[in-house]
Here is the input.
Amino acid sequence: MPDPSAVAVFADLRAEGGELDSLVAELPAADWARATPASGWDIAHQVAHLHWTDRASLLALTDADGFGDMVREALKAPDSFVDDGAAEGAALPPAELLARWRAGRVALDAALDAASPDARFPWYGPPMKANSMAGARLMETWAHGQDVADALGVRRTPTARLRHVARIGVRARDYAYAVRGLPAPSAEFRVELLAPDGGDPWTYGPVDAGQRVSGPALDFCLLVTQRAHRDDLALTATGPDADRWLDIAQAFAGPAGAGRTPQAGPR
Here is the structure.
């Protein structure tokens, strides 16, 4: 019997991709060249990057040797392979890029559904189970979708799908320190987030922890995906370690992100 939690995240990933698809499906070709908040990336770059990472995920699930070849190729240009992959896809006609991204999402969904729930699959970091890979794909789809929405001046309604992003952000706490060569705090933090629908808060960590972070789940997700500066978010840190974490938090793998500059105060 399939793992219910995996089935749920697979469905949420489909929904997240569909929401972004609805933003770009009817865009005139010229609008794919609109600049996004990510320096040097337009809307086509954002979608192309998602297509590139979907293909990498599909290889990891279905062809470990092929994924290994992809990793070795990336290591030839470790500082530029992400930008190179996005630029290659962004050079395609928008209609072709959209069609390829859609086909890739369908293929990845089928591979996730067919994957053994207990198997671990290779990735650029530690190997992952299929449900964790789906959660990571959802996080990235949501984050790059935010860049597209910002470029289009669209304010998206946050959903319960953000729970996957928040969970990764909490679990990646120590990684944010490690990638900067800093020692991580030894004690767990308490994180309390206001759910988008006004329901029960999303909570992580010991209830009696001395170091705490609280605020809207949307703001926390914007912070850990580095789509907004903490000065523009309604997040509260209690304790010096928690306060420091909010300056460096990142949910994504890879080098320390540059983050975003402050804008006009909390959203």
